[in-house]
Design brief:
The protein is built from 10 helices and 10 strands. The protein is of the alpha/beta class and about 300 residues long. The longest helix is centred in the middle third of the chain and has 19 residues.
Length: about 300
Protein backbone atom coordinates (compact mmCIF):
# COMPACT_ATOMS: atom_id res chain seq x y z
CA UNK A 1 0.00 0.00 0.00
CA UNK A 2 2.96 2.32 -0.49
CA UNK A 3 2.57 5.48 -2.53
CA UNK A 4 3.96 5.88 -6.01
CA UNK A 5 6.72 8.28 -4.94
CA UNK A 6 10.27 7.20 -5.79
CA UNK A 7 11.26 6.97 -2.12
CA UNK A 8 8.61 4.33 -1.41
CA UNK A 9 10.74 1.50 -2.78
CA UNK A 10 13.82 2.32 -0.69
CA UNK A 11 14.61 0.15 2.31
CA UNK A 12 13.47 1.36 5.71
CA UNK A 13 13.15 -0.40 9.06
CA UNK A 14 10.16 0.25 11.32
CA UNK A 15 10.94 -0.34 14.99
CA UNK A 16 9.00 0.05 18.24
CA UNK A 17 10.44 0.48 21.73
CA UNK A 18 7.75 -1.26 23.78
CA UNK A 19 7.65 0.55 27.11
CA UNK A 20 4.94 2.50 28.90
CA UNK A 21 4.76 6.21 29.67
CA UNK A 22 5.96 5.85 33.29
CA UNK A 23 9.07 3.87 32.26
CA UNK A 24 10.85 6.47 30.12
CA UNK A 25 14.31 7.54 31.23
CA UNK A 26 13.28 11.18 31.50
CA UNK A 27 11.05 10.22 34.46
CA UNK A 28 13.71 8.24 36.34
CA UNK A 29 13.95 10.81 39.09
CA UNK A 30 10.27 10.53 40.00
CA UNK A 31 9.27 7.05 38.80
CA UNK A 32 10.86 4.41 41.01
CA UNK A 33 10.85 0.91 39.52
CA UNK A 34 9.53 -0.47 42.79
CA UNK A 35 6.43 1.68 42.29
CA UNK A 36 5.76 0.88 38.63
CA UNK A 37 3.06 -1.61 39.54
CA UNK A 38 0.85 1.14 40.99
CA UNK A 39 0.62 3.14 37.75
CA UNK A 40 -2.14 2.63 35.21
CA UNK A 41 -0.52 0.56 32.46
CA UNK A 42 -1.76 1.49 29.00
CA UNK A 43 0.51 -0.77 26.97
CA UNK A 44 -2.26 -3.11 25.78
CA UNK A 45 -4.45 -0.49 24.13
CA UNK A 46 -1.53 1.50 22.72
CA UNK A 47 0.17 -1.58 21.27
CA UNK A 48 -3.12 -2.56 19.70
CA UNK A 49 -3.27 0.87 18.04
CA UNK A 50 0.14 0.27 16.47
CA UNK A 51 -0.71 -3.28 15.39
CA UNK A 52 -3.89 -2.01 13.74
CA UNK A 53 -1.93 0.64 11.84
CA UNK A 54 0.70 -1.86 10.77
CA UNK A 55 -1.96 -4.28 9.54
CA UNK A 56 -3.78 -1.52 7.65
CA UNK A 57 -0.64 -0.58 5.73
CA UNK A 58 0.81 -4.12 5.52
CA UNK A 59 3.90 -3.19 7.52
CA UNK A 60 6.09 -5.64 9.42
CA UNK A 61 8.11 -4.16 12.26
CA UNK A 62 10.61 -5.05 14.97
CA UNK A 63 9.38 -4.63 18.55
CA UNK A 64 12.09 -4.09 21.19
CA UNK A 65 10.20 -5.20 24.28
CA UNK A 66 10.91 -4.67 27.96
CA UNK A 67 11.00 -7.90 29.93
CA UNK A 68 8.99 -6.18 32.68
CA UNK A 69 6.16 -5.64 30.18
CA UNK A 70 6.41 -9.15 28.71
CA UNK A 71 6.26 -10.78 32.13
CA UNK A 72 3.03 -8.98 33.05
CA UNK A 73 1.40 -8.80 29.63
CA UNK A 74 2.37 -11.99 27.76
CA UNK A 75 -0.72 -11.70 25.56
CA UNK A 76 0.71 -8.47 24.13
CA UNK A 77 3.94 -10.22 23.13
CA UNK A 78 2.03 -13.14 21.63
CA UNK A 79 -0.21 -10.80 19.63
CA UNK A 80 2.85 -9.04 18.21
CA UNK A 81 4.47 -12.34 17.24
CA UNK A 82 1.24 -13.72 15.77
CA UNK A 83 0.96 -10.64 13.56
CA UNK A 84 4.31 -11.44 11.95
CA UNK A 85 6.50 -8.88 13.67
CA UNK A 86 9.98 -9.50 15.02
CA UNK A 87 10.35 -9.90 18.79
CA UNK A 88 13.53 -8.28 20.14
CA UNK A 89 14.78 -7.22 23.57
CA UNK A 90 14.82 -3.78 25.21
CA UNK A 91 16.32 -5.19 28.41
CA UNK A 92 14.30 -6.11 31.47
CA UNK A 93 13.41 -2.87 33.25
CA UNK A 94 14.87 0.00 31.22
CA UNK A 95 18.15 0.52 33.04
CA UNK A 96 20.74 2.46 31.08
CA UNK A 97 23.61 0.14 30.19
CA UNK A 98 26.27 2.72 31.07
CA UNK A 99 25.01 2.62 34.69
CA UNK A 100 25.34 -1.17 35.03
CA UNK A 101 28.30 -3.41 35.82
CA UNK A 102 29.16 -6.05 33.28
CA UNK A 103 27.64 -8.79 35.45
CA UNK A 104 24.45 -6.80 35.96
CA UNK A 105 24.19 -6.38 32.20
CA UNK A 106 24.71 -10.12 31.66
CA UNK A 107 21.82 -10.89 34.02
CA UNK A 108 19.59 -8.29 32.36
CA UNK A 109 20.04 -9.38 28.74
CA UNK A 110 19.97 -13.12 29.44
CA UNK A 111 16.83 -12.79 31.56
CA UNK A 112 14.95 -10.67 29.01
CA UNK A 113 15.98 -12.87 26.06
CA UNK A 114 14.82 -16.11 27.68
CA UNK A 115 11.59 -14.51 28.86
CA UNK A 116 10.68 -13.17 25.42
CA UNK A 117 11.58 -16.42 23.69
CA UNK A 118 9.51 -18.50 26.11
CA UNK A 119 6.46 -16.27 25.61
CA UNK A 120 6.69 -15.67 21.85
CA UNK A 121 8.15 -18.92 20.58
CA UNK A 122 10.57 -16.84 18.48
CA UNK A 123 14.34 -16.67 18.64
CA UNK A 124 15.30 -13.22 19.93
CA UNK A 125 18.12 -11.95 17.73
CA UNK A 126 18.03 -8.20 18.38
CA UNK A 127 18.66 -5.89 21.32
CA UNK A 128 18.22 -2.16 21.85
CA UNK A 129 19.71 -0.49 24.92
CA UNK A 130 17.39 1.78 26.91
CA UNK A 131 18.02 5.41 25.94
CA UNK A 132 20.61 4.30 23.36
CA UNK A 133 23.05 3.95 26.25
CA UNK A 134 25.87 2.25 24.35
CA UNK A 135 28.84 4.52 23.85
CA UNK A 136 32.63 4.44 23.59
CA UNK A 137 32.82 3.56 27.30
CA UNK A 138 30.74 0.36 26.93
CA UNK A 139 32.64 -1.80 24.40
CA UNK A 140 32.28 -4.80 26.75
CA UNK A 141 28.52 -4.79 26.16
CA UNK A 142 28.88 -6.25 22.67
CA UNK A 143 30.84 -9.22 23.95
CA UNK A 144 28.07 -9.86 26.48
CA UNK A 145 25.36 -9.69 23.81
CA UNK A 146 27.22 -12.03 21.46
CA UNK A 147 27.82 -14.56 24.22
CA UNK A 148 24.13 -14.44 25.16
CA UNK A 149 23.18 -15.34 21.58
CA UNK A 150 22.10 -12.00 20.17
CA UNK A 151 23.02 -11.32 16.55
CA UNK A 152 22.55 -7.57 16.34
CA UNK A 153 22.13 -4.45 18.44
CA UNK A 154 20.50 -1.12 17.65
CA UNK A 155 21.78 0.79 20.65
CA UNK A 156 23.72 3.72 19.19
CA UNK A 157 22.36 7.11 18.18
CA UNK A 158 25.30 9.05 16.67
CA UNK A 159 24.09 12.51 17.73
CA UNK A 160 24.64 14.95 20.59
CA UNK A 161 21.84 14.92 23.17
CA UNK A 162 21.75 15.58 26.91
CA UNK A 163 20.26 12.11 27.64
CA UNK A 164 22.08 9.98 25.06
CA UNK A 165 24.19 10.07 21.93
CA UNK A 166 27.56 8.97 20.56
CA UNK A 167 28.31 11.32 17.64
CA UNK A 168 31.81 9.90 17.07
CA UNK A 169 30.58 6.38 16.36
CA UNK A 170 29.70 5.24 12.81
CA UNK A 171 26.39 6.32 11.29
CA UNK A 172 25.67 3.00 9.58
CA UNK A 173 25.71 -0.70 10.41
CA UNK A 174 29.13 -1.92 11.55
CA UNK A 175 30.67 -4.98 13.16
CA UNK A 176 30.94 -4.23 16.84
CA UNK A 177 32.05 -7.82 17.58
CA UNK A 178 32.94 -10.67 15.20
CA UNK A 179 29.50 -12.20 15.87
CA UNK A 180 27.39 -9.09 16.32
CA UNK A 181 26.25 -6.17 14.19
CA UNK A 182 25.50 -2.68 15.52
CA UNK A 183 22.77 -0.83 13.60
CA UNK A 184 22.65 2.87 14.60
CA UNK A 185 19.53 5.01 14.43
CA UNK A 186 19.45 7.13 11.27
CA UNK A 187 20.88 10.62 11.02
CA UNK A 188 21.10 13.15 8.22
CA UNK A 189 24.53 14.67 7.73
CA UNK A 190 24.58 18.37 6.92
CA UNK A 191 27.85 20.33 6.82
CA UNK A 192 29.60 17.50 8.63
CA UNK A 193 27.13 17.38 11.52
CA UNK A 194 24.74 14.52 12.30
CA UNK A 195 21.11 15.58 12.69
CA UNK A 196 18.63 13.18 14.37
CA UNK A 197 15.90 12.03 11.99
CA UNK A 198 15.17 8.56 13.36
CA UNK A 199 11.81 9.22 14.99
CA UNK A 200 10.95 9.29 18.67
CA UNK A 201 10.57 12.79 20.08
CA UNK A 202 11.98 14.35 16.93
CA UNK A 203 9.12 12.88 14.91
CA UNK A 204 6.76 14.92 17.11
CA UNK A 205 9.01 17.99 17.34
CA UNK A 206 9.84 18.55 13.67
CA UNK A 207 7.18 19.97 11.34
CA UNK A 208 5.86 17.07 9.29
CA UNK A 209 7.06 18.57 6.01
CA UNK A 210 10.59 18.87 7.43
CA UNK A 211 10.55 15.23 8.54
CA UNK A 212 9.56 14.01 5.09
CA UNK A 213 12.15 16.29 3.48
CA UNK A 214 14.81 14.78 5.75
CA UNK A 215 13.77 11.24 4.78
CA UNK A 216 13.93 12.10 1.09
CA UNK A 217 17.37 13.66 1.54
CA UNK A 218 18.59 10.62 3.45
CA UNK A 219 17.45 8.24 0.72
CA UNK A 220 19.04 10.38 -1.96
CA UNK A 221 22.37 10.77 -0.16
CA UNK A 222 22.85 7.32 1.34
CA UNK A 223 22.84 3.72 0.14
CA UNK A 224 21.79 2.37 3.53
CA UNK A 225 18.42 1.51 5.06
CA UNK A 226 16.67 4.17 7.09
CA UNK A 227 15.93 3.24 10.75
CA UNK A 228 12.85 4.70 12.46
CA UNK A 229 11.59 4.15 16.02
CA UNK A 230 8.49 5.03 18.03
CA UNK A 231 6.99 4.27 21.46
CA UNK A 232 3.37 3.15 21.95
CA UNK A 233 2.75 5.95 24.48
CA UNK A 234 3.44 8.50 21.74
CA UNK A 235 0.05 7.61 20.23
CA UNK A 236 -1.73 8.25 23.54
CA UNK A 237 -2.54 11.93 24.23
CA UNK A 238 -4.89 10.86 27.04
CA UNK A 239 -2.16 9.15 29.08
CA UNK A 240 -2.00 10.00 32.81
CA UNK A 241 0.33 12.80 33.90
CA UNK A 242 1.29 11.73 37.43
CA UNK A 243 4.69 13.42 37.78
CA UNK A 244 5.96 16.83 38.78
CA UNK A 245 8.54 17.42 36.06
CA UNK A 246 10.48 20.32 34.57
CA UNK A 247 9.09 22.40 31.74
CA UNK A 248 11.76 20.99 29.45
CA UNK A 249 10.82 17.37 30.22
CA UNK A 250 7.12 18.16 29.98
CA UNK A 251 7.64 19.76 26.57
CA UNK A 252 9.63 16.83 25.26
CA UNK A 253 7.30 14.11 26.48
CA UNK A 254 3.88 15.60 25.75
CA UNK A 255 4.54 17.66 22.62
CA UNK A 256 2.17 16.86 19.73
CA UNK A 257 0.98 13.51 21.09
CA UNK A 258 -2.38 14.15 19.45
CA UNK A 259 -0.67 14.44 16.05
CA UNK A 260 1.40 11.24 16.23
CA UNK A 261 -1.17 8.77 14.93
CA UNK A 262 -2.16 10.71 11.78
CA UNK A 263 1.50 11.44 11.09
CA UNK A 264 2.28 7.73 11.50
CA UNK A 265 -0.46 6.83 9.04
CA UNK A 266 1.07 9.07 6.38
CA UNK A 267 4.57 7.76 7.10
CA UNK A 268 3.48 4.14 6.85
CA UNK A 269 1.62 4.83 3.62
CA UNK A 270 4.45 6.65 1.87
CA UNK A 271 7.39 4.30 2.44
CA UNK A 272 8.20 0.59 2.32
CA UNK A 273 8.93 -0.81 5.80
CA UNK A 274 10.57 -4.04 6.95
CA UNK A 275 11.72 -5.82 10.10
CA UNK A 276 15.30 -5.32 11.24
CA UNK A 277 16.23 -8.98 10.89
CA UNK A 278 14.90 -9.09 7.33
CA UNK A 279 16.94 -6.05 6.33
CA UNK A 280 20.21 -6.75 8.10
CA UNK A 281 20.69 -10.46 8.80
CA UNK A 282 20.34 -11.76 5.27
CA UNK A 283 23.66 -12.68 3.57
CA UNK A 284 22.90 -10.22 0.76
CA UNK A 285 23.19 -7.31 3.20
CA UNK A 286 26.67 -8.14 4.46
CA UNK A 287 28.37 -6.30 1.62
CA UNK A 288 26.83 -3.04 2.93
CA UNK A 289 28.24 -3.41 6.43
CA UNK A 290 31.10 -1.07 7.22
CA UNK A 291 34.39 -2.86 7.56
CA UNK A 292 35.25 -0.67 10.55
CA UNK A 293 35.13 -2.98 13.56
CA UNK A 294 34.90 -0.21 16.11
CA UNK A 295 35.06 -2.23 19.32
CA UNK A 296 36.91 -5.46 18.54
Amino acid sequence: MASSCSESSLASAMTVDLEDYFQVSAFEGCSDRADWQRFECRIEANTDRLLTLFERYQVKSTFFILGWIAERYPDVVQAIAKSGHEIASHGYDHQRVNTLTEQEFVSDVVRSKHLLEDISGQEVKGYRAPSFSFNQQTPWAYKVLAKAGYRYSSSVYPVKHDHYGSPLLPRFAFLAHPALLEIPISTLQIAGKNFPIGGGGYFRLYPEMLMHWALRQFHRQEQHPYIFYIHPWELDPEQPRPFQISRKTKFRHYLNLEKTQPRMERLLKQYQWQRMDELFLKPSHQTQVQTQQAFI
